[in-house]
Each structure stands twice: as structure tokens, then as C-alpha cells.
Amino acid sequence: MDVTAAVVDGFDRIRGVVHEVLDDADPAALVFRPDDQANTIVWLLWHIARVQDDHIAAAAKTHQLWTSAGWHERLGSPFDPSATGYGQTPTEVGTLKLDPELLRGYFEAVHETTVAYVRAQDGASLERVVDRRWDPPVTLGVRLISIIADGLQHAGQAAYVLGLARRDAAAGGRCS
User: Fold this and answer.
1) Phi-psi bin for 98: left (phi > 0), alpha (psi -120 to 50), beta?
2) What does the mean pLDDT of the chain come to?
3) Sign of dihedral through CA atoms 59, 107, 169, 96?
4) C-alpha to C-alpha distance for 117 and 168, rounded to whole angstroms
5) pTM above 0.85, yes or no
6) Could you read off the pLDDT of 88-107 as tens digits, one per residue?
7) Which stretches of 61-139 are DSSP H helices?
8) Residues 53, 103 contacting (CB under 8 angstroms)
């Protein structure tokens, strides 16, 4: 397996968890919060797509799909178009209510763009510096692995919150 195929596999793994969560979650579960400081499933999945869209667009020197393809408007996001979720307050997290199929559409568009971009790279291009704000500067390869790590972490959190929502519903709580 070449390195770009391994990176694509990482992004495909995020996609698999995102689809499992969206396929299994009912509308109440998507906005369930174990407490008022916790992230919702819909926010976690939106954040995965936004960060990936933002970082891949920056690396590829293209426009983000969120704005260029009109996803911000289609999804009716309450946030500034530049928001990716970093630094948002718990109150802001609680305001995000998105249609799950539109969210899936946005995630899929980002995933397809990401995979096409990664497949166009080679080992040498993964050494290209894409962010000089860090010491050492961040290469494309490191940035891609960072996006995968963040995406898998948040996808796992979404799956965990779904489990908590189901337990809550079974106990006659907010999700029942």
C-alpha cells in the first residue's frame, strides 16, 4: 500500500463512523447533550466536516465547499461562515440544529473532495510545508494525519454520545 492509499483509508474510516452514527441516530439523539457543557452529535459531525473542508482547502489553495458550494446557506447554519467549531461556547454548540441528510450531503462533498486531493498527491508532495505558524512548520503529510486524528476522535465521541442518548431514552429520559 502506498502512503496516499493509507491516508485515503484513514479518511474512509472517519466516513464509516459518520455514516453509522447518522444511520442509527434519531432526531432527538442528534441534539442530545449528556449535560449542558457537552457537544451534540450534530455539532461533532458538522465540526469534522468543517475542519476537514477548511484544512484541505487551505492545503490545496482552493475555496471551502462550505461557502463556495453554498452549504452554509443550505444547512441554515447559525454561525459565521468562517466558523469551524474551534473556540465555540457550549451555548453556541447548543444552537446548531441541522437536517441530518443535508449534513450527510455536506460531509460527503467534503469527503469526495478530500479523497480526490489526497489521491493526486505523492510521497514528495506530502513533504511540502503548508503551515509555517508552527515550529517545526507543518507539512502536508502531518496536516493530513492531524485531520484524520481529529476526525476519528470526534467521530468516536459522536458514537459515544449516541450510546448515551439511547441509554437516556431507554431510561425514559429526554430522548424518549
Assistant:
1) beta
2) 95
3) positive
4) 41
5) yes
6) 999 999 999 999 999 999 99
7) 65-68, 71-75, 90-95, 100-119
8) no
**Is residue 142 packed enough to be buried (19+ CB in 10 Å), middle (13-18) or exposed (0-12)?**
middle
In one-letter notation, the amino acid at residue 110 is V
The pLDDT assigned to 173 comes to 79
* Residue 160 cell numbers, joined: 459515544
d(CA 80, CA 103): 17
Residue ranges in the chain whose pLDDT is less than 70: 1, 175-176
Beta strands in the chain (DSSP E): 129-131, 138-139
- Measure the CA–CA gap between 13 and 65, rounded to whole angstroms: 21
Q: Which CATH number fits domain 3-170: 1.20.1270.10, 1.10.1660.10, 3.30.420.40, 1.20.120.450?
A: 1.20.120.450
What's the N-to-C CA distance of the chain in angstroms? Answer: 46
Q: What is the pLDDT of residue 47?
A: 98
Joined together, the cell numbers standing for residue 125 give: 508532495
The reported pLDDT for the residue numbered 172 is 87
Amino acid at 107: F
φ, ψ of residue 52 in degrees (nearest 5): -60, -45
**Predicted local distance difference test score (pLDDT) of residue 123:** 83
